Amino acid sequence: MDFSKLSELMDHFTGWRIPGNSCIVYKDRKPVFKYSSGFSDIESGKKMCGDEVLYMFSATKPVVCTAAMTLWEKGKFDLNDTVDKYLPEWADMKYKTVDTDGKELILPVPSDRKATVRDLFTMSAGLDYNTERPAIREAIEKYSPQCPTREIVRAMASEPLNFIPGDHWNYSLCHDVLGAVVEVIADMPLADYVKKVILDPVGMRDTEFGMSDEHRKRMATIYSFNDTTVSIDKVPGQGNWAIFGTEYHSGGAGLTSTVGDMAMFTEMMSAGGVAQSGERIIKSTTIDLMKKNHLTEKQMPDVNWSQLTGYGYGLGVRTLVDPVKAESPSPVGEFGWTGAAGAYMLVDTENKLALFYAHHMLNNQEYYTAPRLRNVLYSCLD
Fold first, then answer.
1. Are 257 and 204 in contact (CB under 8 A)?
2. How far apart are CA 143 and CA 265, in angstroms?
3. H/E element holding 9?
């Protein structure tokens, strides 16, 4: 294996518009590539070295969904359970629609179309990513600075859905709600459960929800790319809008971690659920279920991001369904996800191949970086 093309690609990214990046690749359970390029802080000239703490944003999702599926393995829930079985506030949801004259209507969700746990996993429950909705903002103000997960998710349920659950795929706060379901079933905070069943046994010592003081000292500066000025600008404040408070554990975007830690999780998934220590985290058959496409023919056209051409969506992960459309050398069932600041996860159980890459810039240029990382990775293999 020769990974020179992958390191050259990473150098190209940092010479283009990415401040700094790091990447680790595992093949057949062994680390075969580790590289960093560019800067963790441009202004001070501090170089990226690979152990920086980064906001994972939506790369949190596969971790939380895997944790949730360990409960499914124990028979604690069925995918077709309605959400209101665990979160009673979801019992009488309403949704927005329009009449024949284009007038907006707010109607009750039909009793036989209530959102299910599967809808939460697959982003099909009718939610969106608008955290400025009045009920959500009021709850954040009321419960600040803690903002317990259950209270904020309860506020989400008071806002109307965008469609009847199951009708569409829409990237949204679904996994935040799933995190609240996990809290109810596991009878502990989401952060504690994820630590117990994923972080500790995998050896992810630098991963947590939120941002501890120790992590903050090691954090790479978070930037944003400005399309108008074509400039890389520092992001003011904490940099992660998904962390509402100290007790809000966002199942969709709340983790901070390092490339090394996230690579260990990615490698565990590529090895069929067994950590480097030999401890089984999740069954390989469960991973097979997660990486299957769970979207209907009606939902599939909603997955219309350019970097997801040829992909469907499973239980919290993109999954390759058409390599020709994707222009992908990876096999059907290659899966993973990304993060708003540039994290990219690729899992290939067929080849026991795992890649985790990250940079730390919002407006992350994923449309450009993600397919190139995938394609160049496979070109480096024997």
1. yes
2. 33
3. helix 4-16
Q: How far, CA to CA in Å, does 166 sit from each of 68, 71, 72, 113, 215?
A: 20, 23, 20, 8, 39
CA distances 35 to 24, 121, 306, Å, are 7, 33, 27
178 contacts 61 by C-beta, under 8 angstroms:
no
Per-residue pLDDT tens over the stretch 4-63: 999 999 999 999 999 999 999 999 999 999 999 999 999 999 999 999 999 999 999 999
Query: N- to C-terminal Cα distance for the chain?
Result: 5
pLDDT in tens, 281-321: 999 999 999 999 999 999 999 999 999 999 999 999 999 99
Residue 64: partners with Cβ closer than 8 Å, 6 or more residues away: 175, 178, 179, 182, 190, 194, 251, 252, 316
State the number of CA atoms in the 13 A half-sphere of 2 facing the CB. Answer: 4
Q: pLDDT tens digits, residue range 324-349?
A: 999 999 999 999 999 999 999 999 99
**Per-residue H/E/C for 89-153:** HHCCCEEEEECCCCCEEEEECCHHHCCEHHHHHCCCCCCCCCCCCHHHHHHHHHHCCCCCHHHHH
Report the Cα 361 to chain-centroid distance in Å. 16
Q: Which amino acid is at 64?
A: V
Tokens of 358: 């990250």
Closest CA to 218 of 206, 208, 209, 210: 206
Pairwise CA distance, residues 140 & 242, whole Å: 11
Residues 95, 162 contacting (CB under 8 angstroms) = yes
Task: Answer whether 357's CB lies under 8 Å from 3's CB.
Answer: no
Fold of domain 4-62+189-379: Beta-lactamase (3.40.710)
Q: What is the pLDDT of residues 203-213, one digit of tens each?
A: 999 999 988 88
Listed by start position, the domains of the chain span 4-62+189-379, 76-186
For 89, the token pair is: 């506030």
pLDDT value of residue 198: 98
Rounded CA separation 305/340 (Å): 14
Alpha-helical regions (H) of 190-331: 190-194, 200-202, 213-218, 259-270, 284-290, 323-326
